[in-house]
Amino acid sequence: MALYHALRCYGELAQPRELLALSEFANCECEGAPKDGRCEHQLQRTAAELGFRLEHWVSDSPADLYTTLRRFLTDRAPVLVCVEHGAHWVCAVRATSRNVWIADSSRDQEEVLQRWTWRELAVALAYGLPARFDLYPLMVE
Ligand SMILES: [Zn+2]
Question: What is the CATH classification number for the domain harbouring 90?
Answer without folding.
Answer: 3.90.70.10
